[in-house]
Design a protein that fits this description.
Layout lengths: L6 E9 L2 E9 L2 H5 L4 E7 L13 E10 L7 E15 L6 E9 L2 E10 L4 E8 L14
Antiparallel strand pairs: 1-2, 1-8, 2-3, 3-4, 4-5, 5-6, 6-7, 7-8
């Protein structure tokens, strides 16, 4: 069984002297294409100290909006915690592989994707860690 993974697509920029990655996310690439997407935003927490947009390894704080008919404005803000991103240059290419980890109210997750420094665009897939079962695989006890 293939499970769709949430996808995040956004742009790195400098906003109020801080390095920011923001854009749109969806529950899958298909949902993204269909327009079922919401906003997200991450801010680099380290010492940026520059006016040149470039991805930085380190910790980011952020959130994503989740559609919620019962919430004011139709969305709930979901904080993302301890999001760590690492950028590794791909040999003979102007692209970077990106890996990361973090957590939110839905659990711990991994991030994986690519960053293009020419356009400052980054696209990542999010995969949640499977909850560990305390019971035997057949669901029974002794």
């Amino acid at each position: 069984m293939v499970t769709e993974k949430p996808i995040l697509r956004g742009l790195f920029k400098i906003s109020e002297g801080r390095l920011v990655w923001s854009g749109k996310w969806a529950m899958s690439s298909q949902k993204f294409k269909e327009g079922e997407k919401s906003k997200f935003k991450f801010i680099f927490t380290g010492d940026f100290g520059g006016d040149k947009v470039e991805a930085k390894d380190g910790v980011y704080k952020g959130y994503f909006l989740l559609k919620d008919a019962s919430a004011d404005g139709g969305y709930t803000k979901v904080p993302e915690k301890k999001v760590k991103l690492k950028f590794v240059k791909i040999d003979d290419a102007e692209m970077f592989e990106v890996e990361g980890t973090g957590s939110n109210k839905f659990g711990e997750f991994k991030l994986q994707g690519k960053y293009d420094p020419k356009s400052n665009k980054m696209a990542l897939e999010k995969e949640y860690k499977q909850a560990e079962d305390d019971e035997d695989e057949d669901g029974g006890g002794i």
